[in-house]
Design brief:
Elements lengths: L1 H16 L4 H23 L5 H13 L2 E2 H5 L3 H10 E4 L2 E4 L6 H12 L4 E6 L11 E9 L3 E8 L4 H11 L5 H9 L4 E4 L10 E4 L4 E4 L10 E2 L2 H16 L1
Antiparallel strand pairs: 1-3, 2-3, 4-5, 4-10, 5-6, 6-8, 6-9, 7-8
Helix pairs in contact: 3-6, 7-8
Length: 243
Amino acid sequence: MKNSYLNCLKKLRDFRRSLKNDTDIKRGKLYFTWIKDKTEKIRNETDENYIYNNLIKYALKNYKIDKYIYERLNKSLKAIVKNNYILNNNNYIFNNTNISKENALLLAKKVLLKRGNVVWIDFGFNVGNEFGGMHPAIILKNFDNELFVLPISSKKPSEYKKIEKEFNDGKITKKECEKQKNDVIEILQIDKIYRFKDMTRWTNITRMKKVSILRLNFNGTIGKIDGKYLNIINEKIGQEFFE
């Protein structure tokens, strides 16, 4: 243990000394931040109440259940909401920090962290062209302690930029521009995420991955995409991986 620790410190010192220009220093700062956050996540793994405590402290408190969501819950979930929330202006607001662990986790899985909802995930430090950092992600499936998610980016894909340049240069029509965008199987443009800032975002289905729920930013906004996007994602997954 001691040798491993000392060797690790030596490598970190050597890496720190190698950072010369602004780009290296910026990346180094991200790397050291990632190490700090990764260490904290590893420590949290041993805390069996970490998820429960953060649900109460942040997620349940911040997430308002509106009438539309409430009416679509089953009888048992409605009872849990009525016992732990207060109704205010057609929104159910969490007000019971003594909610049982079982009920808190059930609400998380069936209401807050369900398929189609969008949450903030820390994807960690990226290597090369890997997807990294804190980004919103669409939940495709909830495995209790793990989430199968599709990351979302606010950066327009290079494929779209190339097609739009051809349109702006007058080489293709607007109709052909839209057709070519739709033909890029792995990319999906998302025009709106409910509860998020209004802006266009994109997702790449090849970046789907399963992550630990410990990577969730419990204090982050929880949004939702329209069902039509889930249908398109399903179609694109079939085209990309099974045709």
